[in-house]
Amino acid sequence: MNWMTMLQQVNLYGMLAAYYKSKNPELCEYYHREYRAALKQLANWVESYGDPFQMTAMKTENPAYYQQQQAYNGYYGYPQAPTHISRREYTKVRALHAAPNAPSVDIFVNGELFAKGVSFKDMTDYVKVMPGEYTIEIYTTDGQTLVLQQRVRVPEGAHITLAAVENNGNGIELLPILDEPFVPPGKAKVRAIHLSPDSPAVDVAVQGGNVVFSNISYKDVTPYIEVEPGSLPLEVRVAGTNNVVLEIPAMVRRGEALSIAVVGLSQGEPAINYIVLKDN
Question: In this predicted model, which residue has the larger pLDDT, 6 or 207?
Fold first, then answer.
């Protein structure tokens, strides 16, 4: 993709985001995300190759030098964007603190600070990274104690939640969860995740009604199901019984992909609770 196409994308997505700001907030948010991604791609191109308008002026004012620069870089005409910044290659990653017995922490990726002061039930925003292997280190916020060091491999083009969870009484571990942001037009979708380490298997049901997700064990992640947008009152029951341990007054908006994570402790503090994660 050349710089002119990238510039056109920036302008188009920016105008569409502005147009839908009051008419359709969901479309506004979508086009604003695309605008930011396109702008970042264009900025990477400029950082690699220079200001294209200056290059145009150089071609007119000093054609000999321009040809020399083009030959040096191996291009003829305007250079193409380097393949390593293709948006298709990015993976989006976020972190979730779901370990009830762990303190607030700082998270480092390949030695660089990723998130600071992350407490139980906190979740970071998605961050774009290149696919590959990363070393994740989690320290207490005073920097004195290494809570976790783990190598994680992220695939190309995925959305990943790295959940810090209890490891059967042996500290914590990272549980990679594959998020699926696509939602059919006019619909919404939800799934359930069991992250309460001392709780038995559970069912998630409509309040007073049918079971939606059955027999979910610790660290299980259910498939998504499509639902109609609107109020979705749910309850968590001990699997195979009518014993309700948690009520979840969920609200699902059109176009949303949600994960409902059961967290906390059934015996002790912090008590069993839930987090609603937006996956898109």
Answer: 207
43's tokens:
């900025």
Beta strand spans in the chain (E) = 91-97, 105-109, 112-118, 127-129, 132-140, 146-154, 159-166, 172-179, 188-194, 202-206, 211-216, 225-227, 230-238, 244-252, 257-263, 273-278
Residues 6+ apart with CB under 8 A from 204: 192, 211, 212, 213, 216, 222, 234, 235, 236, 237, 248, 260
Please write the tens of the pLDDT for every residue from 172-212. 999 999 999 988 888 899 999 999 999 999 999 999 999 99
d(CA 276, CA 204): 14
The answer to whether the Cα torsion of 234, 238, 241, 245 is positive or negative is negative
pLDDT of 134 higher than 50: yes
Q: Indicate the number of domains in the chain.
A: 3
| Per-residue pLDDT at 84 exceeds 70 | no
- Please tell me the pTM assigned to this model: 0.69
Whether 116 and 200 map to the same domain: the answer is no
pLDDT at 82: 45
Question: Quick one: which of 152, 158, 172 has its CA closest to 97?
Answer: 172
What is the domain range of residue 226?
180-280
